[in-house]
UniProtKB/TrEMBL annotation:
FAD-dependent urate hydroxylase HpyO/Asp monooxygenase CreE-like FAD/NAD(P)-binding domain sequence ranges: 8-188
Protein name: Adenylate cyclase
Pfam families linked to this entry: NAD_binding_9 (PF13454)
Organism expressing this protein natively: Streptomyces parvus
């Protein structure tokens, strides 16, 4: 008897769940009621996967408010398949409270759900329950001919000819899964130690030091960090925030009246980075009034024109000027419409001249200077990106005071609707991101800049950081951080450009960041085998995929008919597998295109009598 057609989704986290939701949405149109075996491979529970698994500390939060998180499409998403409405996280919690939904969650998480408001920052274990429910709802929506098989294990390799069935070898079974098509949605990667990290790890072993390489912080072994011991931390983004939480509240400290009361079990965290400042806080007020029309200067036509060019694109030359103009459009539209008392030209006059001026030109700078008298109301992307460039302090203590003032000012501004042009720029960033993912690999700088401005921590986390700084548990090192190894003394040494001549020595170095999404250094045997088997990998180490449907490309640029890949390790990486409602999340568009491509391929294969190998 001929087996049913089969598809294997490797990775059961939010991205894999999103693809399955789109398979369910498109199956009736593209596949009908024929038989199909759908295999889901992940060592962690499907829905949340590894990053959003339920067994995490309740101290770890999401970096988005509940009302800003959805796994479901709406009419703002560009997609060929049907929109299937579903609740955002806050609406889902309301459905749980009303008894309309019964999630698979333990009593502690249920209590969190019952207390959740739209402006709250949920715990990651609460988000895990939402993702699991989304996954189960997608399975329930599949046609009866589709049979789902879950495999709680790790996929090791994918082999097989372009014209035949694929073989997916699993960690704990001798026989491979046979499938007609494979979708890789493995999420964030574990990394092999790239040369610098390997050298640091070797140094640490020789001198009995502690070196924690880039990793998902919840999986790092923090027990080796001793109370009172200085720890050099390289990285000031979201991974640092997790580290800070687990080593303070996670070790029994607590906050009272805005001050931190140590438990005595905390190490002392000396933190720095290239920028030397934390990511900007999440904006703490809602949108009101007229939205800036987006996209305006960087839309689909602009993207198509760039894609039609021959030769590689240079981000700074070909892309950044349009990005800067689009973000400026969002900023000044809001300034003129919501805060006209801080402008000196009629909005219509400014908008016409702004649209006509070349990005970065003296004419544009002159127009802005004329129309916006206060320099503090002008958008300066370079200053936003590198606020400590050229800043020097004569002592580490002076830096502590200055950086506390900087963080306090950032918190105040990000919670003040009188600066709502910042929220407009955030919306502009989302619009720009949706277009840039169509261009493929544009380098890593843009993704870091986007995260720094648009994906920072909740405001309360920065309030905690200030309290930890005042308590001496966190010490700021500054910008341009470098880490050296001293073979004679057997120590790590950190220096920054912000405090010339100063340095910090420690037995412990923590790299507070996720591993780079690079196939060149990945520890994943699955992706290493794919890389070594002829899949195209960019200079940045990303897996090359067709932007139209996420099929994996080979070294000759040919899309593989039976292999698709989505996620941060590909050239079509999007900002996240879930997003704000009504912002046209590009990941949803990608999920839909991939699901439709898979269903169409499997339908056509069945109509041809199926090729076997």
């Amino acid at each position: 008897m001929t087996p049913a057609p089969g598809i294997v989704v490797i990775g059961g986290g939010p991205r894999g769940t999103g693809v399955i939701e789109r398979i369910a949405a498109n199956a009736a149109e593209l596949y009908g009621d024929g038989p199909l075996d759908l295999h889901v491979v992940d060592p962690h529970p499907a829905g949340g996967g590894r990053i959003w698994r339920p067994d995490q500390s309740p101290l770890l939060w999401m970096n988005s408010m509940a009302e800003d998180v959805t796994m479901f499409t709406d009419e703002t998403v560009e997609l060929a398949g049907p929109v299937v409405a579903g609740p955002a996280l806050d609406a889902w919690a309301e459905d749980v409270r009303a008894g309309r939904i019964t999630p698979d969650a333990d009593p502690a998480v249920l209590a969190e759900i019952h207390g959740l408001a739209g402006a709250d920052f949920p715990t990651r274990r609460l988000q895990s329950a939402y993702l699991r429910w989304t996954y189960e709802r997608a399975l329930a929506a599949l046609p009866p001919g589709i049979t789902v098989h879950e495999h709680r294990t790790t996929a090791l390799t994918v082999t097989g000819p372009r014209g035949g069935r694929q073989r997916v070898r699993l960690q704990d079974r001798p026989e491979p899964l046979l499938a007609d098509l494979v979708v890789l949605t493995v999420g964030h990667l574990d990394a092999e130690q790239e040369p610098e990290q390997k050298g640091l790890a070797d140094f640490a072993r020789r001198h009995a030091l502690v070196h924690l390489p880039p990793d998902f912080t919840a999986d790092s072994d923090l027990d080796a960090l001793r109370p009172g011991e200085p720890v050099i931390v390289r990285g000031f983004g979201l991974a640092f925030v997790d580290l800070m939480v687990l080593l303070t509240e996670g070790r029994g400290g607590r906050y009272e009246n805005g001050e931190y009361l140590p438990s005595g079990r905390e190490p002392v965290l000396y933190v720095g980075s290239r920028r030397g400042v934390p990511y900007h806080a999440k904006i703490g007020y809602p949108w009101t009034g007229e939205r800036p029309p987006l996209p305006q200067h960087l839309g689909p036509e602009w993207t198509e024109e760039l894609l039609s060019r021959t030769g590689p694109l240079d981000f700074r030359r070909d892309i950044w000027p349009a990005v800067a103009k689009e973000l400026g459009h969002a900023h000044y539209h809001r300034l003129f419409t919501a805060h006209p008392e801080r402008t000196a030209l009629a909005h219509e006059v400014f908008a016409e001249k702004y649209a006509a001026a070349d990005p970065g030109s003296p004419e544009l700078a002159g127009l802005i200077a004329e129309a916006v008298p206060d320099p503090a109301d002008r958008l300066d992307l370079d200053a936003l990106d590198r606020p400590l460039d050229g800043v020097r302090h004569d002592s580490p203590e002076a830096l502590q005071e200055a950086l506390r003032s900087y963080i306090s000012a950032d918190l105040a501004r990000r919670h003040d609707p009188e600066h709502s042009e910042d929220l407009a720029v955030f919306l502009g960033l989302l619009s720009v991101y949706a277009q840039l993912v169509r261009l493929g690999d544009i380098g890593s700088w843009w993704h870091g800049f986007f995260s720094y401005l648009a994906s920072g921590p909740p405001g309360p986390r920065l309030q905690q950081l200030l309290a930890l700084s005042r308590a001496g548990v966190v010490r700021f090192l500054g910008a341009g951080l470098t880490v050296e190894t001293d073979e004679d003394q057997g120590l790590f040494r950190a220096r920054s450009a912000t405090v010339p001549g100063a340095h910090t020595e420690a037995r412990v170095l923590v790299e507070a960041r996720l591993p780079d999404p690079s196939l060149r250094h990945t520890a994943s045997p699955l992706l290493r085998a794919l890389r070594d088997g002829g899949a195209a990998v960019t200079d940045d180490g990303l897996l090359a995929v067709d932007p139209a449907d996420s099929r994996v490309l080979d070294d000759e640029g040919r899309p593989h008919p039976r292999r698709l890949a989505l996620g941060p390790f590909t050239t079509a990486r999007a900002g996240g597998a879930f997003t704000r409602p009504r912002t046209g999340g590009p990941a949803f568009r990608q999920n839909d295109a991939a699901a439709r491509a898979a269903l169409t391929f499997l339908r056509d294969l069945s109509c041809r009598g199926r090729l076997a190998s």
